[in-house]
Design goal:
about 625 residues, alpha/beta, 6-stranded mixed sheet, 21 helices, elongated
Length: about 625
Amino acid sequence: MPIVALAQIHVVPGRPDLNVAKMLEYMEKADEANADIVIFPEFSIPGALLGDTWEDEEFLADCGFWGQKIAMASKKMIVVFGNITSARDSRGVIYRHNATFVAQNGRFLGRDNFFYPYRVKTRLPFSRAYIKENHYFTNNEELALRENQPLSKFLAPVTVEIRDEEFNMGCATCADGWGTPNDPPDVFNEALKHWDVDFFINISASYWRPGKNQERVQNFSRQAQRHKRPLCYINQVGVQNNGATIYTYDGNSCIYDAAGRIVAKAKAWEEDLLVAPIPTNCYEPELETEDDTDTAHLYQALVYGIRHFSQSCSIERAVLGLSGGVDSAVAACLLTEAFGAANILGINMPSEFSSETTQNLARKLAEDLGINYTAIPIDESIAHTCTQIEEASIQKKGGKTWHLSLTDAAKENIQARDRGSRILAAAAAAWKGAVVCNSNKAEVAVGYSTMYGDTVGYMAPLADLWKYQIYALAEYIQENKNIDLQAIINLPPSAELSANQAVDKGLGDPLYYPYHDYLFRSWVEDNADITQTMNAYLHMELPNKIGCAGEALNHACPSLRYFIEDLERWWLQFRGLAVAKRLQAPPILALSKRAFGFDFAESQNKPYFTQEYLNTKENLLEDK
């Protein structure tokens, strides 16, 4: 069987020139390694997440130009890569294809048994990163309907000649490899109905989240075993975004034998060229795969995402508020590893409500990390702002004047805005850096933040992490990075915006994270609503349903009436003002099965309670 080289490269979205330069470099390396075939990832020329750039005809033509450059550079070694291609029909309608191209000796292969000199992706999934893929591209199912042909006719393998021997290479693109009889179309099975296939390839642009690599391994192992064919899976590395959400790509390319065992695998989170023979038997020792659900992998993904997204934005320095709390502490540790200590500026901005405890913890953390640090008090500027607002004479029709009056909540928000929009923004501008947002996912879920205050920043690296994950990261950092965070971990979470949040008195945020983390997670990631929450509570199944401890629920909501009040308070926030805050939030680094941003489409409407919920609530309160 042929020797294959899986070129796991860092794909730069929207830069076909840079990607082709990298591909030419890896083609040379593969040739030096005596590979018969070199395979690049899906969309290796244009990149994957481009938004409406897919509708830019000049860009598409440019991608075609660069694809021809790769074909012309091909010699005896076969080159496989992903690109965009397009054509107009007789009505002038443009059809775009997410395509796999195969080239050898300066020309494209595959026209001998198919309409086009490339292979078209079949499954265009409704997934979080590619939610509009079926809007931009035409797939094989549409082509089959148009030509009145069975789908299998459009899954023709590409016949390649290697050392005077012919092989039929079945081509699948990313989601094509996930079809089963219960989740059609089953691309591999459909291909084998009509064609002889010696081995399959799957070129991918598959983003990471905890457990994703195990899912891939289980799926492709089953596919290779079920169809009794070797399979080469090639993924990319790097970071791409769709504006609101940032995705990391972890690589982990590998080769499976016909028994579904991994016989060769590439590195994770870095470029690699995996060179190995396509297995002809099932006697090679199987390689183990790592569990990527633990905190160590989460930490690695965070550092990787921060570093590479920042590089893509040409950001070399980061500024953050360093409060002495666990969120900013974890953010500071991650940023230090991603940028280097010399490129981080931490600023503590104490007010009259900031304890000596948190101020000292912030200063000590900065010293331990070796980052730049300063403290800038805000009491004077807050007092000045409040005086200006409340003493401003406002004239209305008829010549009468009146004055504004600030509530306690408004004064708390002024503190947050002074820190974010005045101090952090100005410091970043002066230092030629960029502000990082420290918000976590629970805060983002219910808008426990201040617009133009603690939500400012060019990215929000922690905003897809629940508070319990932040604590797990803090413990991991303490154990593995030699940074003492125990005193910070022990503090009650607090914004320190009023005397009611004094940490030295054990006071803090209105959220009880051991319960609210899991409640909000059920709304966001499991798409539950307040009616389902109420019903689960009534049947004494809520802790089980959302994954929290029963003691946590009892602590947060000691009575039915308290439970209902708490539930409605946060539901109104979640579906109310928090939506406006999320729509204006910085891009979020995606780390879960559902991140806010592109994957969580929402409109600014008034919160709604179903009739079932209202009736249930009324009956319960009457009984009480």
